[in-house]
Write a structure and sequence with these properties.
This protein is α/β, with parallel strands linked by helices and 257 residues long. It has a single domain, classed as TIM Barrel (Alpha-Beta Barrel), CATH 3.20.20. An eight-stranded parallel barrel has the order 1-4-5-6-7-10-11-12, surrounded by seven helices. Helix 1 runs parallel beside helix 2 and helix 6 runs parallel beside helix 7. The radius of gyration is 17 Å and the shape is globular.
Amino acid sequence: MTVAVRVIPCLDVDDGRVVKGVNFQNLRDAGDPVELAERYDREGADELTFLDVTASSSGRATMIDVVRRTADQIFIPLTVGGGIRTVEDVDTMLRAGADKVSVNTAAIARPEVLGEMSRRFGSQCIVLSVDARTVPDDSEPTATGWEVTTHGGRRGTGIDAVEWARRGQELGVGEILLNSMDADGTKQGFDLRMLAAVRAAVGVPVIASGGAGRSADFAPAVDAGADAVLAASVFHFGELTIAEVKSAMRDAGVTVR
């Protein structure tokens, strides 16, 4: 049975507003998250992802309110990430109306938290977000040449990205969100080599993120092993519509919803 590929707009939410930059720099306002979420729901998005880029305790109440208001308005799955550190944080977001949470920095600090979360809520609720980049020349190489980063790709961890995705699966996550920090915001296409490497290492669904610029960029990501494709600025600023992306993928022989 062929599983339809999902198209997922990602909204970076900063203090209750959607923002977008290149490589997480020079953020500009892209609108109200609830309004954008409603629009994407109408336009045929299969899921939505909210990333809380404030992700501080001070901004947490704002984010909970945004999630609650969005969940009241849309009928597609909503994933929330950014600042999710504990089992209690997951509980809070799921109660506010999120369907899944994505975890990044907290899992790097203490990988066991992924197991705790997936045992409590089910693996289908827990997404491991992997912000990966090519290891810089002046850094210690990793087994595959890609490393996990934190702080919006600015800080390397020395952890091999492919190995980390495999470890996430072992710990019980239901999905890998693979974000190429090299490609993020560049609109030059997804990192197909890295996608293929992670696909070969894990059996859970992989979401490709970082680099979408044209409707023709999405099908190659699926060919490289993506089960879902995620993009942000090309949707927010009207450069591409969900329908255009799905049509291009269909034309390339990809099954979409």
